[in-house]
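Let's practice the habit of predicting before peeking. Look at the sequence and jot down your guess about where helices and strands might fall. Then scroll down.
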Amino acid sequence: MTTALEPQSPRSSSPPEAWEPLLRALQLAGRPLQRFLAIEAASGIILLFAAGIALAAANSSWAESYAAFWHTPIGVRLGAFAFERSLEWFVNDGLMVIFFFVVGLEIRRELQYGELSEWRRAALPAIAALGGMLAPACIYTSLAGSGAARAGWGIPMATDIAFAVGILALLGQRVSAALRVLLLALAVIDDLGAIIVIALFYSSGVSISGLLIAALGFVLLIVMQRFGIRSKPLYVVPAFVAWAGTYHAGIHPTIAGVVLGLLTPVRAWLGPQGFVDYVREPLERLADSGAADGSQRFGSALREVAFASREAVSPAESLIEMLHPWVAYCIMPLFALANAGVSLSGADFDANSASVAVGVGVGLLLGKPLGVLASCWLSLRLRVARLPAGVGWRDLAVLGVIAGVGFTMSLFVSQLAFGDGLHLSAAKLGVLSGSATAAVLGLALGHVLLPRTVSRQAASSPDEAECSTEK
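Done guessing? Here is the structure:
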């Protein structure tokens, strides 16, 4: 006779109430989707699909309905208090805060344990990212018209991580592991640079009262950490206070998301070995117990195992794992749907607006590779950085072109730079055309310049080999 706590088999293949034929059919239908979501290019493909829908809608007979939908007012009213914004605002200033929060988490993790934790490893991607930001900004400034058009200098500075990683994934074994790591480090530093630019140059007049409210939220978060509060939902309160204060201060609220990410702990309480040691005793106690009082013992052991599972990884790692799929497959596609829709009719652009589109497109397509390659050459020449093993100038050339895919961050800065009107439409057109051309050119160069094997441990020339040695 079995008890309710005893399974029918040591390792059941399905829940006991499931109907096997229907379960197998569902699993068979779900496998293609699981494989699709598992590959690195999935997020970029979804972004591309969302941008295509937005472009199609903005250039169809539904263009007015498309624009009206994203300008639908949404808000709350409590007595005399009213807060009402458009649906587009909730995507750009609300959901994108989560995107920037995850960016902050990833930067914090890389600073602690990743490629940015040691200056010798961080030097090359940091210098490459800086060059890849300055050159496009200079090219844009030289090509853009006068007046308001010059405010878009920050648009071609950014690199879209999802699209860039997706392109490398499509190149397959032509891309070495070292090149992937270099791209990720460059993109993370690039994001950090874009965040600094947004905070310093694309925020309105700062309100002291708003800063005090934001500071209260950050201080409350730190105090809760010092008291050892581990429940993540409780931290929503100080996070909301910090977001509201930042918004009220005139600084874009996504900056609050970045700061919150940087303040999140990156060290685990227990860690892997601590987890094993912690759960060993309750599991042995449960195995030694009989049927009597089994339910109570099982519940106690389950709570202890759940606690150990939560604390085996750091809060930052746990939040990245939890939020990254939502950001990649929901928030970023929603952002693309709301912001990538632009009319492709050039008849509406005056000369000044057209210069915005040209400046952004050329900045992404030419400025990024020129800036990345020139800064890498200078840093290697001065011996302040070194090439990773297996990475040569051909790899850097492909990397520079792929870095010209700006998309998400570039569209975001476009909104901040121009708000609305012809300049915004022109900037979006420049982002889409420049990013698309850079993506196609990056794929083509990857197939031409990079060999099929990933066993390229030596540089492709004696000069590169010399540059890759330490000082």
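How did you do? The two ends are 73 Å apart (CA to CA).
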